[in-house]
Automatic annotation (TrEMBL):
Stated name of the protein: Terminase small subunit
UniProt source species: Novosphingobium pentaromativorans US6-1
Biological process, per Gene Ontology: chromosome organization
Origin organism lineage: Bacteria, Pseudomonadati, Pseudomonadota, Alphaproteobacteria, Sphingomonadales
InterPro entries with a match to the protein in the record: Sf6_terminase, Terminase_Gp1_N_sf, Terminase_ssu
């Protein structure tokens, strides 16, 4: 007798019946792998007899297959609340009762529900604050900076775990970038200086252009001072 499917495998079966796309179903089921690996893993699952039996059973049962596609205030509330908590839309759309990510993007791109579009935008802005809090938590958490290792003589010692610290740095950098994109005025890096051209139109210069411009202005000023100093002085008498 074959073992029952694991929760993820059962989820794969359900997701597969949504669009019959094995690799996408594998990822939507919660497996965190690349698309290339997902294709191989999905093919391996679909080749299993117990998985095929589960697919046939779900089809024969007449159970409702697929994710909801109709908009509702309840779904909108759940999505926005989860965003404010710092979760990604991708992970939210894996929750039961939530439409596929493509459906949510379709609502937003067509502005089919203006109220939801506005709430979604505000939730994304608030998400930056949650991400900022995560940055502080990661930076303050030094619990795994050291690991216990064993010497050849059997004695133990605490060793600095550079790999963990580097991983924490990557997590912080990714969140800093995300927060800066969600709320550039609050968390973005100010790397531009605004100027106006001869017609009064605003222009923006990046750091390289800024320093080049300043150097040119300084050189011009120095030249003007030099020219003034070379002029002959008026005779006093």
């Amino acid at each position: 007798m074959s073992k029952p499917l694991t929760p993820k495998q059962q989820r794969f079966v359900e997701e597969y019946l949504v669009d019959l796309d094995g690799p996408k179903a594998y990822i939507r089921a919660g497996y965190r792998v690349s698309s290339g690996v997902a294709a191989k893993k999905a093919a391996a699952l679909l080749a299993r007899e117990d998985v095929q039996e589960a697919i046939k059973s779900m089809r024969a049962s007449g159970a409702k297959i697929g994710r909801p596609s109709a908009y509702s205030e309840e779904i909108a509330d759940r999505i926005c609340a989860a965003l404010v908590e710092g979760r990604s839309l991708r992970s939210i759309c894996l929750d039961d009762g939530i439409p596929a990510q493509s459906t949510v993007f379709y609502w937003l791109s067509r502005d089919l529900h203006p109220d939801f579009s506005e709430r979604y935008a505000r939730a994304r802005e608030a998400q930056a604050d949650a991400i900022f809090d995560e940055i502080l938590d990661i930076a303050d958490d030094g619990s795994n900076d050291y690991v216990t290792r064993t010497r050849d003589d059997g004695s133990e010692y605490q060793a600095f775990d550079a790999e963990h610290v580097q991983r924490s740095k990557l997590r912080i950098d990714a969140r800093k970038w995300m927060a800066g994109k969600l709320q550039p005025k609050k968390y973005g890096d100010a790397t531009t200086v605004k100027h106006a051209d001869a017609d009064g139109e605003k222009i923006e210069l990046d750091d390289v252009a800024k320093f080049t411009r300043l150097a040119a202005i300084a050189a011009q000023a120095h030249s003007m001072i030099g020219e003034q100093g070379d002029e002959p002085a008026d005779d006093a008498g």
